[in-house]
Amino acid sequence: MKNTENIIEIKNVSKSFGEKCILNNVSISVKRGEFLTLLGPSGCGKTTLLRILAGFGTADSGEILINGKDITDMPPHERPVNTVFQRYALFPHLDVYENIAFGLKLQKVPTDEIDKKVRRVLKMVSMTDYEDRDVESLSGGQQQRVAIARAIVNEPKVLLLDEPLSALDLKMRKDMQIELKEMHKKLGITFIYVTHDQEEALTLSDTIVVLDDGNIQQIGTPTDIYNEPQNSFVADFIGESNILNGRMIKDRLVEFAGHEFECVDEGFGEDVEVDVVVRPEDIYIMNKTEGAQLTAKVKSCTFKGVHYEMFVDTDKGYELMIQDYNAFEPDSEVGLIIRPADIQVMHKERTCNTFDAEIVSEDRVKFLGAEWECKPQTKFSAGEKVKVEVKFSKVELIDHPEDGTLSGEVYFLLYKGDHYHLTIRTDDRDHVWVDTNDIWDKGDLVGINIAPKDIKIIKCDE
Amino acid sequence: MKRFFAQCYIWLLLIVLYAPIVFIAVFSFTESKVLGNWTGFSTRLYSNLFTGDMQGSGSLMAAIQNTLIIALIAATVSTILGTIAAIGIHNMKGRGKQAITFLNNIPMLNPDIITGVSLFLLFVFLHVSQGYVTVVLAHITFCTPYVVLSVLPKLTQMNPNIYEAALDLGATPFQALRKVLLPMLKPGMISGFILAFTMSLDDFAVTFFTRGTIGLDTLSTYIYTDARKGGLTPELRPMITIMFIGILALLIVINLRKARAARNAAK
């Protein structure tokens, strides 16, 4: 069965290296001629997925279809895709012309036709007079142009680009972005682009796939991803944002930062805990406090070129970031207004930690690979499988990993206006979420303790 | 003053290092049978060497020929084997890689005499009659690790994406090996070849134990037997001189080329 609209179907692809799960059941459909970007922090699995598409890696499970044809087990040299590598990977023993002609020569294309094609792509990447040059004498940007030319000269159905601009300086990167975008339009082929640079992704893509920790967080157009992030990870990763805990009172009414706001979101139910995102440029700031939805005191004000970036403390003690063309003096009282359409309400992924557990004895329970003391109970007998709930704020983090019942690493942190929401990855690669007022850095090693009274044991559903 | 002593020291060191070879070179221009007896300037020994007109009959020339042929075969075969092994080792992961690299280093640290005796015992045990073939096999055995050692760094320096880029552009793994990998490894293979060639050239212990009793002589075993018979054949003096000057010239050329390459790179 041929699906003419989708050129690539990635179906339920999973991949692990040893214990570490790199891709977890990833499915993506890529439309013909689309510019699709795989975006995520380093280690999120985006490069692994690209390598599986190119054929340099194999998926543990799942399948990949190009033009309706299963290519999951096809060796890389037979795939109708070409790759532009992060560090160019030009052949140093060949000159520019020979590098570009490499693929055509292998296909036994007649010499005069090779000549024509090579000249055409050289023109396309504005490198016309460089054909006899030694590739190692070229600058980074020129090498990347040659690498792109070498890939597109073969007229692949899909061009894979693995962070192709990350080694270039900012100015060159901006220029190359524009050229890539134009090249995509001109060639009309499908581009799959891997990057960790959210701005680059927003600039270039038709569709962005946000990946984290091997899972797809959101698929959408750049405007969707920016304006309507589906979870706090996406909101935090794409652009600057204020992410706060909120409560949906009813349809079109949400409470956060200690105030009630009108919003445009519906269907969350009544009195439901949610995450709220407000972009810093969407908060109106003014000198007078009457008519404002909330008042605040400016803490700092920094000039950023186009705008000023200010941090304010609101009347209910929340910190917000605001971007505005006008500067407001530190310590001045200001009024803030947020329009209903600028409030993005998101489902909370979780409201407390839930772990699978096993009762060890009357006052001991085992979960996350460790034994914990809990409140003495008689409801469950030893050996029984249960679930354990621990509130985010009740997890205690300590400086010395060896002093904790469990140790782990700060994997992700999110500032929520008045506290930090941390994701701790334990040594067994489980996640524990923590709300804290203490300041930790990403990558800090921590010990984890939970007081016996804060471990709530509940029955398993099944 | 301090400088003066430093100078003296370095000259003393150089004299101790080079006196023997200069001594031989000087006495290669006299006809005396006994080294150290100057009987007037003459180039007779040189002409003898090239015309083969000497007491040792043709056995010295035969020994030189054997040495060169054995070194050439051993260096060629070990370059091929060593390069393949290096690529294999490079693609291994974790413990296995460490273990093989470690095992590769042992034969190089092993004294020649142990390699020689153990190969001798192996050939006896396998009832292989010893001669040309066993010497060549033995030389390949101890040369290969050196090739592995000179090719491996080239592989680790290489951008791992380059091989993948070749595959990506439609090359089969074999084509990628031939058109991309081997050209890039060439400098390492050449230095491995030269290393293997010189190792084979001046080997004595291993050859001595594996040449059997058919009277096969390489240069080193020839000189050894000759010296035991009482006094060196006088023609060895011009030969040693020629070899020394040849190697000196080679080193100068290599260094000049390196200096030029460095200058070009700096530009």
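qc> The longest strand of chain A covers residues 6-17.
qc> done
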